[in-house]
Every structure is written in structure tokens, then in C-alpha cells.
Predict the 3D structure of the following.
Amino acid sequence: MNHSDKIAADKTSLGFEFQDFVYIEKLIELKPGQTLGLELHDDIHVETSAGGACLEDLLLIQVKHSVDPGNITDRDIDLWKTIHNWLKLVPDLPPHRALRFQLYTNKSLNKQEFVSLLKKSHKNIPAILKYIRKTEKEISKVESTKGAGGSPNPLAKYVKSVAQASDAELRFIFERFEFHSDKSYVINRLSSSLRHLAVPESCLDETRKHVIGAFKESKFSRIIEGEKVVINFDDFRNEMGFDRIIRSARSEPADFDSFVDIYYKYQRPDKLSFSNSKFHDQLKDIGIGDEEIIDKGVEMMLAEKFMESLQEDGSFSESENLRLENKAVSNWKLIHNQSHRSTKEDDEAAHQQASQSCYDQTMRNPLKIGDIELPSNLSCGKYIKLSNLPSIGWRKNWNRKF
């Protein structure tokens, strides 16, 4: 082997890159209140804050990459080394209410005995403990027959360490253990995560590279400054510019006015009923007629299909849809409070009049996305959907009744 061959990056370096890409994948999935660490408690760890000194949830992730993936076998050294590492880690972990262990690998899970037991480890703990003790005896017996010059089995020390743990220590690990085996190309998984955030297909490659670049730069800067690579939700979204990257990628605005065409082109079936729906019960209760109830049901049905199509097209995300619905609840709540400020529930006639007023005012209150006012039928469809959950209602006592 010449000098160039020695200094050239070989395929073993893929393991470090794979770990970074898995970390980025977890960053994209991060929720408010969560923090993601790299090579601190484990290869990767996810903390969910509970307030105070105790964490709500702590997830430890061991990332194992193989150039020739194949299968994880019962005597896979990565598997036994991972269990060994977790047994050593547990005493030094920060206080937590719930702890999980995940082995993240690009290998497949075969049908050998130990691997099969570990697929549902929390249900197979007695059999797992028995297998560990049996394997340690088998390997120790083989090792004891080797002469002075015989090469030791590199797996032996990890199996011995795991087997020497108490039943309680092992039970603690396997009650919380899960495999994450996915042979799909991690780059494709990153693109899929971005697609879920409504990044258009045509912008996926460029957006993914921007996100990877932002992480690599942040990681480099933190290491240079002697800091640990620990990134929380706000750091990723704001400091690293993830929100800005996503907004830039989704530069093509959704065409909400096209809903008007969809609504008026819809051919209503001769027999259409929403009688088994919560929104139907709420409207019927305050004296709304059957024809109007069907109209509102159509608006709800078409609005939901329309929003789903926007998400599939990449022009509107699931999180934006949730934000829109939260705004709708806020609008309704103000109207509901005003409508029922003086309502007495025992005066049914007055109560129904106030309830109808609440419903009418809500239907006339258009929803907005930024500066864009949604078509009235689309806004109504959203409000009716929320009354169908039901998250909103028209009577003063709607929550108790429905």
C-alpha cells in the first residue's frame, strides 16, 4: 500500500457521516422543548424538558453503520458492544422520568434467536436473559481451549461484561430497548422529511444541501469554541436558520382562491347526509335547517380535501394547517364569549338565539393566512371541521353536551 492509499479517506469514514446525517434527520423531527446532543451521553441523545431539574424523557441512540450492511446476527459485535455501553452509561445519566434505548442501524434484522427476541424485547426478557448467560458460557468454553498464541475473540469481552450484569440491570435495559433498522438511503430519508414540511419536489436537493451545510458549519463552530454539540429546537429553527431555509424553498404561494372553482364545480349527490356527524348534532340542536347543514357539510368535506391536496403539492404544510386551525379557535372563542356573556342556560329561547348569533358571526368571520383572506366557503369549512371534532361549539354549554 503506497502513501496515497494510506492517507485517502476510506469507507470507514462513512460511519461518521452516517451519524451526522442521522443527527440532522433527528433535528428536523425535533419538537419544542427538546434538545439533541451529539456524542455526549451517547452517539445521539434526545432530551425532552419537563421543567426543573428532571427531564421528561431521555432517548439514547447508538448509530451503527456498515459498508456492507447485510444482517445483524446473534453475535454481531456492534449489538453486544451497544448493550455493554448502555449498562455502563445508566448510572451517570441525568435525572429523568422516562428512558429509552435505540439501536439505529443500516443492517437488516434477521430471524436468528437473539435478534428475534430483541425485536420485542420487553415481552421476551426471561428468554433474553437465558440466551445471554448461555452465549457467555459457549464463548468462554471456546476461549479457554485456545493456546497461548491464539487470538482472542473480540466479542468475548463484551458478552462477558453483559452476562456479568445483574438480572435487574439487564431487565432495565431490555424493557426500554428498540431496534431502528432502516436500509433506505439516509439522504433519501432527509429529502422525505423535508417533503413532509411542504418543500416542493423541485427544491428538495438544494434545500437538503442547505440544511446539511448549516449543521456542518454550526458543528464546526461549536467544536472550535470547545463546546459540546447540543442543539435545541429554537437553536435549529432560528440560529441555524432552518425556518428561513424552509420559507425560502416554499416560495411558490398556495392558490387558496382556486377553492372557489372546486366548490362550485362539485356535483352534489342526490342523497347526501351528515346525520352521524358531531357538527350536524350541534347545528340541529340550535335550530339550523337540514339544507344548510348539508351545505356546511359539503364545505367541510371539500375544505379538508383541498388542504390535503395543498400539502401533497408542497405549497402548504401540516404545521401551517394546524396554525390556521388554532387561529380559527381563537376567532370563535372571542365571538362565543361575546354572544353568551349574558346568556342564561335555563332560558332556552334566549340561549338558542345567542347560539345562532354565535354560529352566524363565526361563519362570517374570514380566516387569514398572512395577508391572504381565505374564500368564505373555505373558512366556513374549517370552522365546521372544528365543530365536528368537536373543538368548538355554538351553545354556551356545548362542551358538556357534545
The mean pLDDT is 90. Residues 3-246 form one domain. The CA atoms of residues 19 and 161 lie 26 Å apart.
